[in-house]
Specification:
The chain is an alpha/beta fold. The protein folds into three domains: 304 residues, Thiamin diphosphate (ThDP)-binding fold, Pyr/PP domains (Rossmann fold), CATH 3.40.50.970; 187 residues, 3-Layer(aba) Sandwich (Rossmann fold); 131 residues, Rossmann fold (3-Layer(aba) Sandwich). It is built from 26 helices and 20 strands. The strands form five sheets. A six-stranded parallel sheet has the order 10-9-11-12-14-13, sandwiched between helices. α1 crosses α2, α5 crosses α17 and α11 crosses α12. The chain starts with a helix and ends with a helix. GO terms for molecular function: metal ion binding; transketolase activity. It comes from Selenomonas ruminis. This is Transketolase.
Length: 667
């Protein structure tokens, strides 16, 4: 290796250490230990251009160990992504471009928000899946316009988390040869040596998943690291896993190899000692980077720009030779035409017969697949139950990356992470599916999707005690409240075909918000009053006879809307006039104007009852102190669904009884 190479490696270490020390907060261990492998990768093996961070054919880099964010920020700074030295000095400060963990959409060049360990590994697998699919869709002989790698860097924590095993098991099965994982193996975690809890043979595990495994004994040997990366690229049949043996906190005499290097600043004296040990000029100075370092990084960045220019010429020729593919490419990378869908009668058409909303969702998926060719998706081994198969489309597999039906196996957590990665990659819209009760398994990655403002769609079926005989382990109770509590997630529980179409319209046209479609197993009737107004989150599905002088309001979502309508009819027989409001999406309703919300739920009508076969948590803001809820107050039971609805009070008689009491108490 050249002296300038090692100087540039040490520049990463010094800058990261200074940023952390100034903030008096952060994780110096990973940046100091991994600087050499990160430099070798970014400088000599990765296609990227800081002047155009969204270049379609760039290699993707995911720092799965997101606590080591100062490593990534240092790379972005040196490689010309617009992150300034002042930005580095504001590390972990309010409003800065250098937050504690990398945040997609906030800092240019960050490919994914990686907070929870292992999440980045799952998202990297999704990115590699997207690359493989788009390459199968668009590449032509001599014109490989989609041809890039996904690199992920993480440590022992990422490998301990179960999500990495889920994701890598599928990656090996799929033979995603353009996925390359760099394992920062320093054998240290927060509590000490990893041997206290982690003694497995990681390489053997990865080999069993179907990865090529490579080991680099010295994490500072740039030549060996480079050869390992090239060997990984040379394998066209398997993803690759490169173990790089490093020392946490490398270069800091008092901290190197110790757990204390992981998650606390080195201390001013130790930072100075680090610089002295690395032979850094004027070690007493902070943020002191020699000009020769910047000059060398500029040369390296220019090589990346040249790579993009080479691709731009190839793509221009491709578009000229294959104009129909150019048109398809543009459609894949453009937003879905919301206006066209809204006015497309075939999109909103339905048969007037009782159907489960999961079945109706399946019909919508098969309509959308032809309207939105960039749609790709699947289920965690539940497609026949979730109704998520695209008819007439093939399966995505090692032998057929052109397939649009994804089979994730029974891996809900990794599935949701992969969906994030597919979406982050660009060029595709994706949905994933499981039973609603198992949204517990998907929730951490759904949270990241919401945080990243990316429009993943979650199809969550078997949404209540209507699951029936499978019993309380499979009957969701608190899950709807859990997801409704999440910011920037539209949780949509439709009541019939029109509302299901509205839910899919919302999901497929969304720009910055993921959508959870919460769907029934049991058949529901088509409602005479349902409409596209469902897109406002709540609307009057069945009006009172005298809306200006009504006695009360019944509110419901999903399968309970028809129950509320039936209860309205019974109340009318007793001379009580109520309005029925369908509320498929509280999130959307809260985005409406105060005037609209007041028109649906007039403040002077205090006799309100919510009806939902789940926890009532969240309904309080709508029923108020004077209202009531017909809801689940415990877990379900194992019995036929219709019996359970009766057992737990979801009957016309009980809703009428509760409504009468509330109306009486408010007179």
């Amino acid at each position: 290796m050249s002296n300038i190479d090692m100087t540039c490696v040490n520049a990463i270490r010094v800058l990261a250490a200074d940023a952390i020390q100034k903030a008096n907060s952060g994780h110096p261990g990973l940046p100091l230990g991994s600087a050499a492998m990160a430099y070798e990768l970014w400088a000599k093996h990765m296609k990227h251009n800081g002047k155009n961070p969204k270049w379609a054919n760039r290699d993707r880099f995911v720092l799965s160990g997101g606590h080591g964010s100062s490593l990534l920020y240092s790379l972005l700074h040196f490689f010309g992504y617009g992150l300034t030295l002042d930005d580095m000095k504001q590390f972990r400060q309010d409003g800065s471009l250098t937050p504690g963990h990398p945040e997609y959409g906030h800092t240019v060049g960050v490919e994914a928000t990686t907070g929870p360990l292992g999440a980045g590994m799952g998202m990297a697998v999704g990115m590699a899946m997207a690359e493989a699919h788009l390459a199968a869709e668009f590449n032509r002989p001599g014109y490989e316009v989609v041809d890039h790698y996904t690199f992920a860097l993480g440590g022992d924590g990422c490998m301990m988390e179960g999500i990495s095993s889920e994701a890598f098991s599928l990656a090996g099965t799929l033979g995603l040869s353009k996925l390359i994982v760099l394992y920062d193996s320093n054998k240290i975690s927060i509590e000490g040596d990893t041997d206290i809890a982690f003694t497995e043979n990681v390489q053997a595990r990865m080999a069993s998943f179907g990865f090529q495994t490579i080991t680099v004994e010295d994490g500072n040997d740039l030549e060996a690291i480079g050869k390992a990366i090239e060997a990984a690229k040379a394998d066209k049949e398997h993803p690759s896993f490169i173990t790089v043996k490093t020392q946490i906190g490398y270069g800091c005499p008092a901290k190197q190899g110790k757990a204390s290097a992981h998650g606390e600043p080195l201390g001013e004296e130790n930072v100075k000692a680090l610089k002295e040990n690395l032979g850094w000029p004027e070690p007493e100075k902070t943020f002191n980077i020699p000009q020769e370092v910047y000059a060398h990084y500029e040369e390296l960045a220019a090589q990346g720009a040249a790579e993009e220019e080479k691709w731009n010429k190839l793509f221009a020729e491709y578009c000229e030779k294959f104009p129909e593919e150019k048109a398809r490419w543009e459609k894949f990378h453009a937003p879905v035409d919301a206006d066209a869908l809204m006015s497309d009668e075939s999109f909103w058409a339905y048969e007037d017969k009782a159907q489960a909303t999961r079945n109706l969702s399946g019909i919508m998926i098969n309509r959308i697949k032809d309207m939105v060719p960039q749609l790709i998706g699947g289920s965690a081994d539940l497609a026949p139950s979730n109704k998520t198969m695209m008819n007439g489309e093939s399966d995505f597999s090692k032998d057929n990356y052109a397939g649009r039906n994804l089979h994730f196996g029974i891996r809900e957590l990794a599935m949701a992470a992969m969906a994030n990665g597919i979406t982050l990659h660009g060029g595709l819209r994706t949905y994933v599916a499981t039973f609603f009760v198992f949204s517990d398994y998907t929730k951490p990655m759904m949270r990241l999707a919401s945080l990243m403002n990316i429009p993943v769609t979650y199809v969550l079926t078997h949404d209540s005690i209507g699951v029936g005989e499978d019993g309380p382990t499979h009957e969701p109770i608190e899950q709807l409240a859990m997801l409704r509590a999440m910011p920037n997630l539209n949780v949509f529980r439709p009541a019939d075909a029109t509302e299901t179409a509205a839910g899919w319209y919302l999901a497929i046209t969304a720009d910055k918000t993921p959508t959870a479609l919460v769907l029934t197993r049991q058949n529901l009737p088509q409602l005479a009053g349902s409409s596209k107004e469902a897109l406002k989150g709540a609307y009057v599905v069945s009006e009172a006879k005298d809306a200006s002088n009504m006695d009360g309001i019944l509110m419901a979502s999903g399968s309970e809307v028809s129950l509320a309508v039936d209860a309205q009819a019974e109340l009318a027989k007793e001379g009580l006039d109520v309005r029925v409001v369908s509320m498929p999406c509280m999130d959307l309703f809260e985005q409406q104007s105060d005037a609209y919300k007041a028109s649906i739920l007039p403040k002077n009508v205090r006799a309100r009852v919510s009806v939902e076969a789940l926890s009532d948590f969240g309904w309080g803001k709508y029923v108020g102190l004077d209202g009531a809820s017909v809801c689940m107050e415990g877990f379900g039971a194992s019995a036929p669904g219709p019996l359970l609805f009766k057992k737990f009070g979801f009957t016309v008689e009980h809703v009428v009884e509760v409504a009468k009491k509330v109306i009486s108490d408010n007179k």
